[in-house]
Design brief:
alpha+beta
Length: 187
């Protein structure tokens, strides 16, 4: 019985740690994200997520190619150079969770949301601290810069959403309680 309970608890807590955000393409736009009005970008994201409240975003950090770190060391990029010494794919890592990133190429920029691919508006899974980037959706040309964005405010998401790790913790504590109750009855 003890082995079964330990196995169940291990599955519950290991499973809870495997929830992660996906990189979801919001859209591709002409111009430069650095020169685009922030309120316009916020409206694109809010409309894309189909939210009934407005998100407020802030640029977290930016790295210009061929640099590998932002000036404050909060964002690190890696590149895979092609034969023309430009990069169209790579990885990124931040010291904190970010909610969105943009990839700028000569043809424009693409916005990517970090969330649940099946339900992007579910705020339980918003954010990540590492991932991949690619310039395929902006013409496949070399990267100009990478910008990371965070939510800084706005109206709060609707109440009643329970974060997944808390649900797993409650479930695990319930199983422990049942195990303790069962053990007490046997003695």
């Amino acid at each position: 019985m003890k082995k079964i309970i330990c196995s169940l608890l291990l599955m519950v807590f290991v499973g809870a740690g495997q929830v992660s955000a996906s990189e979801i393409h919001i859209g591709t736009y002409s111009g430069n994200d650095s020169n685009t009005d922030l309120e316009l970008i916020e409206s694109w994201v809010t409309d894309w997520l189909d939210l009934d409240y407005t998100l407020e975003l802030e640029e977290y950090a930016k790295v210009d190619f061929p640099g590998t770190e932002s000036s404050d060391d909060r964002l690190t990029l890696s590149y895979n150079l092609n034969s023309e010494d430009e990069s169209t794919v790579g990885t990124w890592r931040t010291s904190d969770y970010i909610n969105m990133f943009s990839v700028k190429s000569t043809a424009g920029f693409a916005l990517y949301w970090l969330g649940d691919a099946d339900n992007p508006a579910d705020s339980t899974f918003w954010g990540a601290s590492s991932g991949n980037w690619i310039t395929d959706l902006v013409g496949g040309q070399g990267i100009s810069h990478f910008s990371a964005w965070t939510i800084t405010g706005g109206d709060e998401p609707p109440a009643g959403q329970v974060p997944e790790p808390s649900t797993m913790l409650l479930f695990g504590l319930g199983i422990l309680g049942l195990a303790g109750f069962g053990r007490k009855r046997l003695l």
